[in-house]
Design brief:
heterodimer; A: mainly alpha; 13 helices; 81% helix; B: Serine Threonine Protein Phosphatase 5, Tetratricopeptide repeat; 2 domains; 72% helix; flat
Chain lengths: 308, 255
């Protein structure tokens, strides 16, 4: 069904755009088709249901003081968002190219002719749309849970402290509100999305030379772990002068070839109460966009040379 | 193969180009986090506290979730009064989330208040001297947690306040207590009572009565809201002790 719809869309595109070297509409057609195809996969719903269940259940995980409760709720919910968007980015992207080669869809699309770069870009854009939708759904769920719990705690506090002077009651309610939703959380969620997009583009790059999706997933899991230690390797390489050449070469390789995924985990510190300047958010997001552009370009370079 | 090597070279070239930006970002990040660096903020004692899986998870970007899980485990250990385990787990929690004021405060409270009281009332140890020794050790551990918490979060009035309380209630050291209440009061976001508590504690310190009196009097004149019963009684006490002239004393209505 998905393949037929893609062929149909592309045929219309071909008729309308007679061999234009780059067409946004062709890319959009591939992206839409990819999104439709992915949303028909059961794995997408499983991952989303698990994520939503975890975010929803975070409210029952701890009943301590309201500060502890809100901190744990936010940590668990944002952690779940981070894990599941990353997982979704890797799983959804890893299967795209190997699957298209296996069921020969890629030949039909490229024979239209669609330039390979457009194909890569369209496939990635489809995954990014899926990630945007998932992040949005998870964010809404998280905000609803947090708001619901905040209202419950406010109501409980107002009832418990009803006999105290109005000023003390207001102080207590203000403390509850300030512990619940911190506005910095929203750009923090934005960075979770950027990190997932980065992982999707990197997975696409890996899948251009991978023969199976399992291989791409395994490589990406390793990259994910190493990426979180890249900053440690980088600082060690640049700051320690008494290392042997082998160690230095290894650290340099890690620092130069892996992305710094730790830089995108700002939500940990936001939940802990650290004030993060907007410029830092923007710089990290900028780094993320830069990574995505480079990995997409590399994916296109390798895909151009791939024998189909 | 050629394209693969070309892309590898491009990847390394891009890696070299991004390095200065990543380092700048890391420095900016560290400065926003009060000197912390997210990439390598914890030592490898964490392996003992979080377990192998927890340690890997913590190093893989799930630091806050691992900290929460350890905190929940510490809570269970606290309910079972396993104090050694409580301390070990809470040390892990604070190592993982050094910017969370709540964790430092809770850890110090469990150790300096709960564990120390349990140690003093430990029925399995018949010798009082050893029970007192154990109690003092828990005070010291709680104090150390708060001091480390302050080093990690020098802008947090709550931790200075907790340390002041520890000096006041456990060490009965009013001078140190007043010092930390004063530090808390000087910070933005401090509780309105920190200034009063600073003055109360100072009023117990030999040789500092004059300063305490001036502070209390200033607070007394600041308005009705500051005239708490303790403030009035400490002010009266100091008036008597310092021999303040009758016409300069506060109204007797407040006695």
């Amino acid at each position: 069904m998905g393949v037929h719809s893609c062929r149909h869309n592309l045929t219309i595109e071909m008729n309308e755009n007679h061999h234009i070297s780059f067409s946004v509409r062709r890319v959009l057609a591939i992206a839409t088709n990819t999104l439709i195809d992915l949303t028909r996969q059961k794995v997408f719903y499983f991952v989303l249901i698990f994520a939503l269940s975890l975010i929803g259940s975070s409210v029952f995980m701890a009943r301590f003081s309201f500060q502890q409760e809100f901190q744990i709720l936010k940590d668990v919910a944002l952690g779940a968002m981070s894990i599941f968007t990353s997982l979704l980015a890797i799983i959804a992207t890893a299967r795209l190219i190997p699957q298209d080669v296996e069921d020969r869809t890629v030949y039909t699309i490229l024979a239209k002719p669609v330039p390979r770069f457009e194909y890569v870009l369209g496939r990635l854009a489809g995954v990014l749309l899926l990630l945007a939708i998932s992040t949005l759904i998870m964010s809404v769920m998280f905000l609803v849970v947090l708001y619901g719990r905040e209202q419950a705690v406010l109501h409980e506090t107002a009832r418990q402290m009803s006999s105290l002077p109005h000023e003390q009651l207001e102080d207590a309610l203000r403390a509850v509100r300030s512990s619940a939703l911190n506005i910095d959380i929203l750009p923090g969620i934005g960075l979770i999305f950027v990190k997932a997009c980065l992982l999707a583009s990197l997975t696409l790059f890996v899948s251009t030379f991978a023969t199976t999706n399992i291989f791409a997933i395994v490589v990406m899991v390793v990259v994910y772990f190493i990426g979180h230690l890249q900053a440690t390797a980088r600082e060690y390489w640049l700051q320690q002068s008494n290392l042997g050449w082998l160690k230095r070469a290894f650290l340099a390789l890690v620092a130069l070839t892996f992305p710094d995924l730790q830089a995108f985990n700002l939500v940990d510190d936001i939940v802990a109460g650290a004030a993060i300047p907007l410029t830092l958010f923007l710089n990290v997001a900028g780094l993320g966009v830069f990574y995505i552009a480079i990995y997409t370009l590399l994916a296109a370079v390798v895909f151009y040379g791939k024998e189909l | 193969m050629t394209r693969f090597l070309l892309s590898l070279l491009l990847l390394i070239g891009f890696g070299a180009a991004k390095l200065p930006f990543e380092r700048k970002l890391s420095a900016q990040d560290r400065s926003a986090l009060g000197g912390h660096w997210r990439g390598g903020a914890f030592d490898f004692d964490l392996r003992e506290q979080a377990g192998q899986f927890g340690c890997i998870a913590a190093l893989s970007g799930f630091r806050s979730i691992v900290a929460d899980v350890l905190f929940l485990q510490a809570h269970v250990a606290w309910e079972k009064t396993q104090w050694g385990r409580v301390f070990l787990l809470l040390s892990g929690v604070t190592t993982l989330q050094p910017r969370s004021i709540l964790f430092w405060d809770m850890a110090a409270w469990h150790i300096a208040w709960n564990a120390s009281t349990a140690a003093l009332n430990d029925q399995t140890e018949p010798r009082l001297a050893l029970r007192i020794k154990a109690q003092r050790e828990y005070f010291a551990l709680g104090k150390d947690l708060l001091e480390r918490g302050i080093r990690n979060n020098p802008e947090a009035p709550r931790l200075y306040e907790s340390l002041a309380r520890l000096y006041k209630e456990k060490y009965h050291d009013h001078e140190r207590a007043s010092e930390f209440f004063a530090k808390a009061a000087a910070l933005p976001g401090a509780a309105s009572y920190d200034q009063r508590f600073y003055a109360y504690e100072l009023s117990y310190v030999e040789g500092r009565e004059r300063k305490a009196y001036e502070l209390l009097l200033r607070l007394y004149h600041a308005g009705e809201k500051q005239r708490a019963p303790t403030l009035v009684s400490r002010l009266k006490f100091l008036e008597d002790k310092l021999g303040v002239a009758r016409d300069q004393r506060i109204s007797d209505e407040n006695r």
